[in-house]
Amino acid sequence: MTVAAVPEGPGTGSARSRVRQLLQAALGLGLAVSLLVWGLPYFGHTTWGDIWAVLTRVSWTTAVVLVGGLVLGLYCYTFTLTGSMRGLRHWQALIVNVAGSAIGNLLPAGGAAGLAATYTICRSWGFSRRAISTSAIVTGVWNVMARVALPVVAILGLLAGHDADVPNSLQDAALGGALTGGLLLAAFVAVIASERAAVAIGRGVDLVVGRLFRRRTMGVQELVVDLRHRINHVVRHGWWSMTLGLTGYFGAYYLVFLLCMHATDVGLPYGQLFAAFAIGRLLTAVGVTPGGLGVTESATIIALVGWGAGHAEAAAGAVLFSVFTHFMEIPLGALGWLAWSLSPRKEPVEQEAAVASPRDPLDPSDPAESGQSVEEEA
């Protein structure tokens, strides 16, 4: 329990929070616009006139194929979502994905808003709070691991090649990423596999965090142990579906990236193109701008130009990829919200299930946790 140092009137805290969020959104959007308008031609050593001249050569048939690749990637990701939440169907997962992504692509640090959208949609279909939060935690971990692994695999692949010119800074980044990713993965596996390891890791983090943050409502040790019990069953039974979904998702997006590079005449080897793609995917996690907009394109252009791609061509390829993987998700998200508004509703049943049975809420036979209604269970 914490006590505020200065008493506040009703609504003061929420009003300050809204003002802070608006300021963050304005700064994030401003930075994104600056990077797009000024940063892209600057880092590409070109002009928007030259970039536009390359973009106008892209055919409508290519644009249709790119949309198809985008939809394929989004559908593949439904396997990740259905693997993390029992009872979720693929059409529901597609709605959740596009609706949440659209919000995340519009707002800086949009992950929180996207999670709120996911919560609202899934609750309307009868899923429990615990099922939704557990799914968000597990898919979040899977995404972070995959985005850390992509550039590491790409740079290590280039280092294994004979004709790849990998800058020392990228080599150092690959080594640091490999060590960081390996430690994170090892800690995650240890927490899932052993409660003793979960307690030890949580206690160790508690010692560090406790010195930095005195005012906490829950210890890290308690949090880690609770999360272990919540996600253990999901990971053991859904890891294959979640991994397959992420592999298909990134694979489809890499094909879209290759098509964008081909359409703008960027003729680099596939290994270097994959490395540029992987660096961009890692930076989409940057919450300073909406979906990492501007940051990912700038880093991709720097990598492509550094490996010898044409300046205007590299910038045009990065812009084209961003149009189809960032901006196109916004109208798709609008369609997702429309589809959700027309979908059937179910009342959440975790309260009734808790009264009827004292079983663990993550029991797969629990209709509240599986997202099924009592009538379906019967």
Unreliable sequence segments: 1-12, 351-378
What kind of oligomer do you see?
single chain
Mean pLDDT: 77
Helix content: over 70%
Discrete helix count = 16
CA radius of gyration: 23 Å
Q: Count every beta strand, where a strand is a DSSP E run of 2 or more residues.
A: 0
Q: How would you characterize the largest beta sheet?
A: none
- Helix/strand order: HHHHHHHHHHHHHHHH
Query: What's the overall geometry?
Result: globular
Beta-sheet strand percentage?
under 5%
Q: Give the terminus-to-terminus CA distance.
A: 43 Å
How would you explain this protein's 3D organization?
By secondary structure, this protein is an all-alpha fold. The protein has helices spanning 12-44, 48-55, 60-84, 90-106, 111-124, 129-160, 168-193, 195-212, 220-263, 270-283, 295-306, 311-327, 329-342, 350-356, 367-370, 374-377. Helix 2 (48-55) packs across helix 12 and helix 8 packs across helix 9. The radius of gyration is 23 Å and the shape is globular. The model is unreliable at 1-12 and 351-378 (pLDDT under 50).
Write the layout of secondary structure elements.
Layout: H1 12-44, H2 48-55, H3 60-84, H4 90-106, H5 111-124, H6 129-160, H7 168-193, H8 195-212, H9 220-263, H10 270-283, H11 295-306, H12 311-327, H13 329-342, H14 350-356, H15 367-370, H16 374-377
Helix pairs in contact: 1-11, 2-12, 3-4, 3-9, 4-5, 4-13, 5-6, 6-7, 6-9, 6-10, 7-8, 8-9, 9-10, 9-12, 10-11, 11-12
Keywords:
378 residues; single chain; 16 helices; mainly alpha; 76% helix; disordered C terminus
